[in-house]
Amino acid sequence: MGSIETKAPAAELSFEKFHNVVAKGLRSSEKMHHGVNPSDKSELWDVPIATERDLDEAVEVAREAFKSWSKTTWAERQQVLAKMRAELQKHVPEMAKLLSLEGGKPIQFATGEVMASIGTLDYHAKAPSPGEEILQDDADLKLTLRYVPLGVAAAICPWNFPLVLAMGKLCAAILTGNTIIIKPSPFTPYSVLKFAEMIQQYVPPGVVQALNGDDRMGPMMTEHPGIDKISFTGSITTGKRVMMASAKTLKRVTLELGGNSACIICPDVDIAKVAPLVALGAFFNSGQLCVASKRLFVHESIYQEMLQELTKVVKGWKVGGTAEEGIMLGPVQNEMQYNIVKGFFEDCAVNGYEFALGGKVGGEDGFVIQPAIIDNPPSHSRIVTEEPFGPIVPMMPWSTEEELIPRVNDTRTGLGGSIYCADIERANKIASQIEAGTVWINSFERPLPQAFFSGHKESGLGGELGRHGLLSYMNPQVIHLYKTDVAKL
């Protein structure tokens, strides 16, 4: 494949041993930690904690690899992504098991995340190059806009969808000619480290590296002078710290942060058909989805009927540890988030809000929380104004669009939103008034690799996926070509 030199195929993969991927191979560490299975709180495998020296070496190797990788063609890089896709396809069951154990996902949804990761690789393996744009071409002057890679990217990834969210960053970075260092969440390091290990045979050393770290690794990355871009997915509070630290070296920054997305249900919907979709939008992955429906607004004329149908749907789901058969909702991923979600339940109970469904927290070996629907809490309540990131959602009536839209937009976040409406013209009119980066009409929230994903307000800066996501990993450059012998001033 031309100028790309790759390594020999790795030995048979072990899905019970995990390493950092630095420079030319796998690396352990003097200090180790382990993830916790959120279904039963059992300890998972040991995983090394990378040091500052590991990071320095990874950056040095990545910068050296960038010199040649950035000069490969778009088509050559896509061939590499296609090989990565084929490699991941070989290990779907094993990777799904890792995601189920580390993330608390029922196996069908863990498998779905692996398949979504394959889909992300497939999209980027076929995505067209941004190419060049001619801005002006006349007798005197030709202006050409082109895009060039940034250098070394660092991806700081979350724990809720560890593999597929890392995949979006990895694909865009290396397709556009950058090298990348990935830091998985210490809560869910296993699937990302294993993927980085399995693809080393297809890339030159230093193009893709992965470092599991403790709380110091993220700050070290954001402040490192040899890293040119940070892509971060996580909380608003941490995102602000990432931006502040990155400003010291004027790194390019992409932030995908929290949200408090509204789901609007119009009076003309088929309630029996819509209720299961609304339930998925609110409770998929036990509510641990950045664009999940976190506030339900249902037209007053169908409010009670929708509440009954939605409650019936969710009551029919099996909730528990992922070792059980037929689980629809697994546990919250970690103890920290479990306690945060528990605080929302307690606040609703103390304030006397009505639980149309649920109310039970705890009583299980792991971090399982039974889903809850809060019936018409006050607009100033925590459950309405803040993001639980767990299986609890408020439901409130609305009467007119004029009073609805200000309530929907009364939040400092603007990540997503959804609308269910048989009248498509009306749905589009409502969507155009929502202050958010992505709006779904007649579907629950599901980001696609070909669609740019970004947040408004405090939900983020910049965005990823799609053509525009690729451009966030590149610098624009404009060439001024004067066609006279000497440029006329």
Automatic annotation (TrEMBL):
Question: What keywords sit in the KW lines?
Answer: Oxidoreductase
What's the Enzyme Commission number for this chain?
1.2.1.3
Q: What does the record give under GO molecular function?
A: aldehyde dehydrogenase (NAD+) activity
Every copy of the Aldehyde dehydrogenase domain together lies at 31-478
Q: Which reaction does it catalyse?
A: an aldehyde + NAD(+) + H2O = a carboxylate + NADH + 2 H(+)
One Pfam family this sequence matches: Aldedh
Is Oxidoreductase a UniProt keyword of this protein? yes
The catalytic site is made up of 256
- Which CDD domains does the entry mention? ALDH_AldA-AAD23400 (cd07106)
PANTHER family in UniProt: ALDEHYDE DEHYDROGENASE-RELATED
What family is this? Belongs to the aldehyde dehydrogenase family.
What name is this protein filed under?
Answer: aldehyde dehydrogenase (NAD(+))
